[in-house]
Amino acid sequence: MVPGEEKQLKQEEFRARKKEGASMKIWKENKSAAIVVLCLFIILVTGLVSIGVKSNNGRIVVKEVKISPYGTDLAGSMFIPKSALKTDQAGNFINTVPAVIVNAGFTNSRTYLDNVAIQLARCGFAVFQIDMYGHGHSEGTSHRGYANPPNPFTDDTSLMGAQDALAYLRTLGFVDQTRIGICGHSLGGSAAGRLAEKNAGFFTLEDKLLNMLHSEFGVSITAEQVAAQDADAVAYALLSADQLPLYEMRKEQIVAEDRVAVRNYMVFDAHAAGCDPRVVEVAGIPVWRDLQANLGLVMNISGHEGKGMQDKDAALATEHTLKILSLDGAAERDTWYQTNLSRTTERALSTKLKPFYSDASDPAIQAAAASNRLRMITTPFGWHGYTYLSTATAKAAMQFFSTGMAYYNGDIVAGKSTNSIKNPVASHWIVKDLASAVGFVALLVLILPLIDLLMKLPFFASLQGTPQSPSQSKKSPVFWIFTVIFVALPVLTYSQGAGWGSFIKPSPFSTVELATRIAFWALIITAILFVLVIIKYFTFDRRTGISFGDLYGLRYSGKNSL
């Protein structure tokens, strides 16, 4: 290499290093601002992705709803297919769609079952996802002094808002009143079971008509007539010509009420309270009856009534499962069963139909669904709380409600598979949760750079200074003992601590009972930890010669705050 070329090469290298150094200097000076901008951008994008998933890219309208029966707020989110909101020139809804109420579990807000709500909405259902009373944004139900106590709940608190959610759906013109379902997890599942007991009940339509003939017309009904299930034959054989028009009028009323009863229930990892078959009296004749509704159970392998890896089939053979499904031996998972009508006080065992994830338009399955006799159980992987992260649970809900209500973005017609559902995909909600997780990480990353930028403002100048060296070594046993106490105490006391504030009644200042209890527990724990900090200081840290205020950053100067 000639001397001139060597000199030119060195100059170019020098300029390159100088340019690189300038770039690094600019980056160091603006690093915090760049990270803040990047994090805000990520939060914006992930938020849009989350909204896109929940709304199915604009095909579903998601609305926040608050209803106030008895002056008590019940909060929820409505997922409404846009197609259901079309109206004619007079403002009447052109289409109606089935609806599903979704209840989360104890201490959980509605968003915990986003996996189920999002996937059901994509099936074309109107979904009312509620915060049960005393949970999330819903208020407690035992108000005194400023609102009327909700009398229906003094008799049965287990419905937890499900009854009022149903009443709200009854007011919506785009909801098909003959096709409404409900599902819930844990406490929400028990609430769904109680609604089934009260709304669907155990009497067939013919049972109700025979009861009416017996109680209102004084007709004596025999066991043979109950078994025959033909109230019209009894009426036309025993009533006078003057009584028949009244019978037909009352029959029309009973049939209309029966048509709008809620007939589809799904319980996630909970006891289906109130749904056990039983002996009832039809016109004074005792007879065995199953719940008159389609009912599905989702029992996690390691969850409620499960024994985890010890016995993955445990939930298939529990007394509760066998009662609900009307079986003698262990149930088969992911299988449709049909209950059979008993003619005596002895139960009639169910009939096995087809695999649960069969074509929903199958005539035998649709016949059982129409007569409110479908039963099933599935046992997906997971423990009790895993339901909220379970694709299998969301998938089961899609298959169950689409089959039971013969609807999957349009009516399902028996024998025609042109519009049906079979083994659906239920993973869309994961995209929303992943986007939310990325957005949350971006929020955490945002904190320190944002603090760095804020510390450069005059308002925060008094907080600037050279950090003091640690007053205690991380090798000290005292450090680790107190660290373990501070971390473990809240964790170990939370479950019991949530009940410490049960004596505090809801008021205008604290309307959500559960939130009040948790806040009371948090205050108690904070006070205990603060006392421990003081004890630690005067027992150990004071020896360092550092004041309490300096050690814990409690000094503040307002001289530069303006």
Brief summary of the model shown:
The chain has 562 residues and is α/β, with parallel strands linked by helices. Helix content is 43%, strand content 13%. The strands form two sheets. A ten-stranded mixed β-sheet has the order 1-2-4-3-5-6-9-12-10-11, with helices on both faces. A two-stranded antiparallel ribbon has the order 7-8.
Key structural traits:
two-stranded antiparallel sheet, alpha/beta, elongated, 562 residues
Notes on the protein architecture:
By secondary structure, the protein is α/β, with parallel strands linked by helices. The chain has a domain at 472-545. The chain has helices at residues 3-54, 114-122, 151-155, 162-169, 187-200, 205-217, 223-228, 231-238, 243-259, 319-325, 363-370, 391-404, 428-454, 477-497, 513-539, 548-551; strands at 60-67, 74-81, 97-103, 126-130, 175-185, 264-268, 278-282, 285-289, 294-298, 335-338, 351-355, 374-378. The strands form 2 sheets. It has a 10-stranded mixed β-sheet with strand order 1-2-4-3-5-6-9-12-10-11, sandwiched between helices. A two-stranded antiparallel sheet has the order 7-8. A hairpin with a 6-residue loop joins β1 (60-67) and β2 (74-81). The protein is elongated.
